[in-house]
Task: structure prediction
Amino acid sequence: MVKTSNFRQRDRSYIVIGNISQLVKFLASPMVLSVLYLTALGDSAIAYSSVPQKLITSEKQTKTKITQSPNVTQPKPTFFTPKPPAPPLRGVIYYGNQISLNGRILTGAWLQRRLKAGQLTTHISDAAIRQFIGVDLLNSNIATKQPIQWYSSATKPPILVSTLAGGYRYLDMTNFAKTSGWQMQVQGNTLVISTPNTKITDITQSKESSIERITVNLDRPTPWQVNQEPPVKQNQPLSDDPNNPVPKPAVPTTRDWTITLNGIADPVLIQRYTPPPPPPVEKIPTPGPFPENLLKQLLPPNENQQNTPPPPPPLIKQVQVVNNQTIIRLEVPIGLAPLVSTVPNPNRLLIDIRPDPLLPRAITWATGLNWRQQYINLGQERFPVVWLEINPRTVGLKIKPILTNSNTLEGTAPLLQTAQQQLAVAAINGGYFNRNNRLPLGAIRRDGQWLSSPILNRGAIAWNDSGQFYMDRLALLENLITPNNQKLPILTLNSGYVQSGIARYTPAWGANYSPLTDNEIILTVQKNQIINQLPAGKVGQSTFPIPGDGYLLTLRGSGTNIASMLPVGSSVRIESSTNPAEFSNYPHILGAGPLLLQNRQIVLDAKGEQFSNAFIVQKAVRSAICKTTTGNLMFAAVHNRVGGAGPTLAEHAQLMQQMGCVDALNLDGGSSTSLYLGGQLLDRFPNTAARVHNGIGIFLQPR
Result:
């Protein structure tokens, strides 16, 4: 969803000119022209979106350069994502977060630098060239040198120089673009790239072993992109059983994929892969009364009991040319996915439909930060795992909990958006939350301050800035001490988990508190003194301000019975500790659960952490965080096994153990599972990732 900020309103003055010649002279004066030019540059529009491609719209261009590029016209008006701060690099003269690729506006970080010798170099984030150009990043063990494959030799791949800055890893594309015949220029916030015209001469389909392959023949290399669409629900035939006339909803059996190439397909190919029009619907007269089940009795037994399965849909649904781009639409069975690669001499795009499309990778992305992905075997099962291994002792590296909103604990957003806004170089989704009211359901502690309390004695991870970690099941023990030294237990702090008793809400919750249940009693505490006590009534009828130098106490259910013990004017104080006490020694904590490993041993007890039976046995996509034998931290995303669904919790624990984890914690999973690195999700397409409440971010300042 795109949200657009309102334009700044300006006072408008109207000048009456006596005649047309005076008006022309007035508008042509240098001062007026300068004012009009600067005014046009001042208008801005900001768009927030996790979807990489954006259509050109009628909004005005944001001024986004450090200095004005000479002899460059202003680009067409566009929607924008928030402009990042200037990259902390010497010699940067232009930078932005939009790329115009042959007329399409895409979200991607780029910059231009002026070197000492006067040479102008252009750098694009590795995320953008992977997603929009189709460049494959190959294995590397040097952070500043990135081998790539793009219609090039696998034995002698091109190597691009990489630079880390402002949350992104930029690759120097200057020579690559020149060799490929690209034209590049800066227009405000946008790097405009024009690639040579390409012809698609043929599209063929073949089968090697059990792998379907589509080969796209090209007359020259060209950018390409692949996108995953929602599953396709097949039409369900009506039941022929009169006793059960309503069929069950159809389960999706295929998924649509689109391959977009910057080139024009031969008209013969478009005609070859144009779907035929649907047959006309014949109007069948309504039959007269018919004896029940007579039709079944007349049919032979085999025909009556067996239904012929429909033929599988064609793999290539359609080939079409739109705005000088060829779009190949595929319908792929669930459980299979396209693996797209390029080869030279002659230039071809290969699309293999496989059950195991994940390519193994081991990339040193930055100092202290490695990107890995491969299939991990567990018995007869193969699971695709994408993970980041982080050395927490790296100079300049920080690990912090990250939240969607800085002013309130309410809210969710795609992890991609949250990480980019906070300039994290890497991140993984974190703990649980209520999807309805978007409130946290687990421990969050940052820089020594509790933002939200743990619930149900579930697993949590704690760490400090020295690279030390601790994992266990966690409880926060808070008590309200009354004037007569009576201890009243506070059950939750800034939590969306509601239960009968006392809850506490601090300014970290937000400026105000709205009751989560009916008939709560709200006590306002300021400077350790109760200054107000009010009934809240029905949910949604009132809000209560949270004092900046205090907090609110909420009495729910049986907790309302103690209101008489806490009259206005009473002095109170808070007593707080953790169980285990070791957690209190760490400034950062994030809770999720269940705990998977401790000291290399599986300690999974999901029932003890009060997870449901359905959750425990479910096979689902999962994420985890763990400490390795070397003291490093690992962010891991585990997706669906080859030919089946994701791991159970028990399998998840075994996978983490097999990958060398000493201690491991399960994080929120399913559609929440998201692994972010430098402007991209490594483990899934952004349109398949759910909004999340919080995560854990990696922040890295280049040395």
About this structure: The two ends are 37 Å apart (CA to CA).
